[in-house]
Amino acid sequence: MRDAFLVKLSFWLIVIGAFALLTPQPAWPEWLARMILSTGIALAITTAIVKYRESRKKR
């Protein structure tokens, strides 16, 4: 259940960060949009690595 939450969270962070960067008149500063996008990508990668390591331990 934790993995599903982290995947959803990282997906929405990526979507919000990309949308904030692509809008012509953003309401957020560019550094904040880049930070949100980078956090989403890092969270997705970390979740995938942890899930892979847990599945390897079960074998």
Summarize it.
The protein is mainly α.
Please give the structural blueprint.
Blueprint: H1 2-22, H2 30-58
Provide a descriptive summary of the structure in words.
The chain crosses the membrane at residues 5-25, 31-50. Keywords: Membrane, Transmembrane, Transmembrane helix. The protein has 59 residues and is an all-alpha fold. The chain has helices spanning 2-22, 30-58. It has one domain. The protein has 2 helices and no strands. It is elongated, with a radius of gyration of 14 Å.
Number of domains: 1
Count every helix, treating DSSP H or I runs of 4 or more residues as helices.
2
- Biggest pleated-sheet summary: none
Quaternary state reads single chain
Evaluate the radius of gyration: 14 Å
Uncertain segments are: none
Helix share bin = over 70%
The secondary-structure class comes to mainly alpha
Question: Between the first and last Cα atoms, what is the distance in angstroms?
Answer: 20 Å
What is the succession of H and E elements?
A: HH
| Number of DSSP strand runs | 0
Give average pLDDT, whole number: 91
Fraction in beta strands: under 5%
Shape: elongated
Keywords: Membrane, Transmembrane, Transmembrane helix
List keywords for this structure.
about 60 residues, mainly alpha, 2 helices, elongated
